[in-house]
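Protein entry
_____________
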Amino acid sequence: MSISPKDVLNKNKNPNKRVDIEDINLENVTIDDLRFSGKNYSEYVHLQSLLENISACQISDAYNAVSKRSGVIQAIKPINNRKVWGTIFTAETDCDDWGTSALAIDSAREGDVLFFKVGGDEKAIWGELASTCAKENGIKACVIYGSARDMDALLYIDFPVFSTDFCPNAGSALGLGSLNEPIEIEGMKISPGDFMFGDESGIVVIPKQLFGDVMNQALAVKIKEAGIINDISRGKTLAEIVGLK
């Protein structure tokens, strides 16, 4: 299914419309097109059509093709195996200060992903109450280089959480951390407004200035892999397809 001129001109544009992979065109897409402004109908729909049908693995492959970097922070793993993407709102604090989490929830924009760098993991800075509040505020997910808690709730709540660890105890509502400033984790520099994609395999962070190039490469990866799967279904082996036989 493709977008027609009538769709673009229609005042009642439906942002939930989707196009088939082979019809996706990301030529003019920027990171701003992650949000529907009313003026970016075609770009938004085509971008969402890709992101809903792609994986962290494919985006990492695309980023590697563009920059020779994976974009992956290996220590951060999914808590509840939910796919999510969005622009990053950063926060940095110590593990005894969950108050900075509350301040970040109130400061981030709708559609942002909260990304915490935490000093230590022996106390949790995020749990059920924070997830519930963040979801109500329109925040898309929380990524923690540190610990979460309330696993009995987080495993089932409709709010994606990624962290390096979990524990039952928390600190205090100190609110002493920094908000929306550049951070560095395991040698990776992460700036406010960068792109994050996460799913069952983990997370990938893409610098905002490379977003368009990586999305176009990700589309190419998706199409290529779809072709390989089709070849396998027709009887070819993977070794044959990649030229090993």
Remarks:
- The chain has two domains: 5-69+209-228, 77-205.
